[in-house]
Amino acid sequence: xxxxxxxxxxxxxxxxxxxxxxxxxxxxxxxxxxxxxxxxxxxxxxxxxxxxxxxxxxxxxxxxxxxxxxxxxxxxxxxxxxxxxxxxxxxxxxxxxxxxxxxxxxxxxxxxxxxxxxxxxxxxxxxxxxxxxxxxxxxxxxxxxxxxxxxxxxxxxxxxxxxxxxxxxxxxxxxxxxxxxxxxxxxxxxxxxxxxxxxxxxxxxxxxxxxxxxxxxxxxxxxxxxxxxxxxxxxxxxxxxxxxxxxxxxxxxxxxxxx
Length: 259
Description:
By secondary structure, the chain is α/β, with parallel strands linked by helices. It has helices spanning 3-31, 49-60, 79-83, 96-105, 143-153, 170-181, 187-191, 196-205, 221-228, 230-244; strands spanning 67-71, 88-93, 112-116, 129-135, 154-165, 208-214, 252-258. Strands 3-2-1-4-5-7-6 form a seven-stranded mixed beta sheet, with helices on both faces. α1 packs parallel to α4 (96-105), α5 packs parallel to α8 and α9 (221-228) packs across α10 (230-244). The protein is globular.
């Protein structure tokens, strides 16, 4: 993948998220929604477990004194988790419209700062943050560059916590390629989708790392939901994760990396 392709794709992704944020902003204003459901509770129950775990890990690793940076914040799906902890949160994204929506949704929090910036070139000095967190945005930057930036701005003993998708299971890969063919993804995000190799890069660069895998049979959820309903489908998928402990073919992972 050339640098020109990556830059072109970044422009496409920015335009896509600027448009979707504008649509969301108009809906929030027109419907006069005071508080939209966010976080793990906004995720369908049959896909919720990794996000519930992610929120729990975030809460267990922060307090009111923590200075946290969120990468790829978007419109703030998981930003509130740490704002409600009292942490000082700097939410970043390349989409200004997305951050405008985020600010609106968390307008009552004084511990929030937003900043338009690229995760490949963070405008912060070394050792600035106790925690960096990221939900589903790792494929929007060159992995080695993003890792280097994360490590640079984290304080000693600081942690990087993320939840994201894995790219090993051919079923999920096929689905993502279909989204690409429908112009809902760019080739860059497909090629940068996290893999075990990505996780191993963090293992090599950080002093400690813990990874939990989820959704080893998540591909079966559409059928399970039809037969058993969403709640039981979620229970079965969770049971399989604990029973067979699959890594490479998992759907999602949550990683905690300590500098």
